[in-house]
Amino acid sequence: MTHLRLWTLTSCLSWFALGLMPGPALAQDMTPRTTLAHYENLAGQSGVPVRGKVLFTASHGQRWKCTSCHQANPALPGRHASTGKAIEPLAPAASADRFTRLAKTEKWFRRNCQDVLDRSCTDQEKADVLAWLITVKP
Amino acid sequence: MNTLKQHSRPLLWALCLATGLLLSLWWSAARADDDDDEGHGGERPRAVQMLPAYVQECGACHVPFAPRMLPAASWQRLMKNLPHHFGTDASLEPAEFKQISAWLQQHAGPGGATTAPPEDRITRTRWFMHEHDELPASVWKRASIQKPSNCAACHRQAEQGDYRERFIRVPR
Questions:
Q1: From the list B62, B87, B89, which residue is nearest A111 (CB)?
Q2: CA separation for the pair B171, B151 (Å, rounded)
Q3: Hey, is the C-beta of A107 within 8 angstroms of any chain B C-beta?
């Protein structure tokens, strides 16, 4: 084998091997629909979009609602209610990155349900909210 | 003729050396701190490279504040209290918590527990208030700025932790 071919083969194999390595938490491992399926599986029931919309838009007796940062129309860019920092739209149809990393999804559900509901969201509630968000078009 | 040939090599060396010296002088002058309008004498610490995990987690809701802005004691308290972080839950996964905590401790600003600002707020440190004392109170009320913790409104490289004067532009 010539040097060039050997080098090319080695490079290709290296890149292939790198691709097989377990990626960091930042690696995209889901889609919105597989994320929904994940929560529906845990809840044992389908997500109900109408219930999800109510949960998202209603006040739950705390300082903030989901819409305080993510807007009544989550296909629009949001804004942090305290700092004013711009937030990407939450609806997957408006933002291709949303609900593609389960660890990230879980983290933000944990934080934001605590803020909005003063407790964790149940798997059913997560499924409901996500089922609704998936229907929201820009 | 002979004399010129004899001296040409050492002359060439001398010329190279001189050029090199001049270049290095110009280079260091070009990189000098142009921010020294208050006579710090070049003591202003350089921005540390931002830890990606810190930017991702702590820069999600606000500017990722540079670690030198608070003493280690303040950062320690803030990190311990993340579920109640200025009114919101900012909790981290254990691995991220450990990594970010260590980085903050390593790059924290000078001073100990006694110099920690009230509520561990950067905007209530003595240095912050001193740096911004030229600004009238009305500036903070502008819609484009709103509050002193909104660093990025005026410091265009705040995301990178760079607060040098050349990158300041105060919006109307």
A1: B89
A2: 12
A3: yes
**CB within 8 Å: A85 and B146:** no
Which chain B residue is nearest to residue A86, measuring alpha carbons? B61
Beta bridge partners of residue B85, listed in sequence order: B88
Statement: residue A98 has pLDDT above 80: yes
In three-state form (DSSP H/G/I as H, E/B as E, the rest C), the secondary structure along chain B is CHHHHHHHHHHHHHHHHHHHHHHHHHHHHHCCCCCCCCCCCCCCCCCCCCCHHHHHHHCCCCCCCCHHHCEHHHHHHHHHCHHHECCECCCCCHHHHHHHHHHHHHHCECCCHHHCCHHHCHHHCHHHHHHCCCCCHHHHHCCCCCCCCCHHHCECCHHHCCCCHHHECCCC
Q: Which chain B residue's Cα is nearest to A88?
A: B60
Q: Which residue of B has its CA nearest to A63?
A: B87
Q: Give the per-residue pLDDT at A109.
A: 98
Q: How would you write the pLDDT of chain B (172 residues) with one tens digit per residue?
A: 556 566 677 788 777 777 767 766 665 555 544 444 444 444 455 678 899 999 999 999 999 999 999 999 999 999 999 999 999 999 999 999 999 999 999 999 987 656 899 999 999 999 999 999 999 999 999 988 888 999 999 999 998 889 999 999 999 8
Chain A residues with beta carbon closer than 8 angstroms to that of B147: 84
Q: How far apart are CA B108 and CA B75, in angstroms?
A: 8
Nearest CB among B62, B83, B87 relative to A63 is that of: B87
C-alpha distance from residue B155 to each of B44, B45, B59, B60 (Å)? 16, 17, 15, 17
Taking residues A101-122, report their average pLDDT. Answer: 97
Give the tens place of pLDDT for each residue, A55-71: 999 999 999 999 999 99
ipTM over 0.90: no
